[in-house]
Write a structure and sequence with these properties.
The chain is mainly beta and about 90 residues long. The chain is built from no helices and five strands. A five-stranded antiparallel sheet has the order 4-3-2-1-5, with no helix packed on it.
Length: about 90
C-alpha cells in the first residue's frame, strides 16, 4: 500500500468491519504483525470522499479492495447565459 491509495475495508479484511468503510492510506506502518496482516494509517472517508476520521487499522492485506474515486458533483460557479438571438 502507498500514500493516496483508496480502499474498501470490509469484513474480508477484518471482522471488526461489519460495514465496509472507504479508506485513504497515509502510510503502511512498519509494525511487526502476523503473516499477511498489516497496519495502515489513514482517513475514513464519507460518500463524497471527505475525511471524517483519522484511523489506524489492522487488516489482512489479501482482504483489501481498491475503491473507485468519489464522483465529483457539479462545481459551484457562474451559470452559462441563455443563448439569445439579436433581431434587427
Amino acid at each position: 500500500m502507498k500514500a493516496g491509495d483508496l480502499l474498501i475495508v470490509g469484513r474480508e479484511a477484518s471482522v471488526q468491519f461489519m460495514r465496509p468503510i472507504r479508506f485513504r492510506v497515509i502510510r503502511q506502518l512498519d509494525w511487526i504483525t502476523y503473516d499477511g496482516w498489516i497496519w495502515l494509517d489513514g482517513y475514513q472517508l464519507d460518500d463524497r470522499g471527505d475525511a471524517v476520521a483519522r484511523r489506524s487499522v489492522f487488516v489482512m492485506k489479501a482482504g483489501l479492495r481498491s475503491a473507485p474515486a468519489p464522483v465529483a458533483l457539479g462545481q459551484p460557479g457562474r451559470k452559462k447565459a441563455p443563448n439569445r438571438r439579436v433581431t434587427a
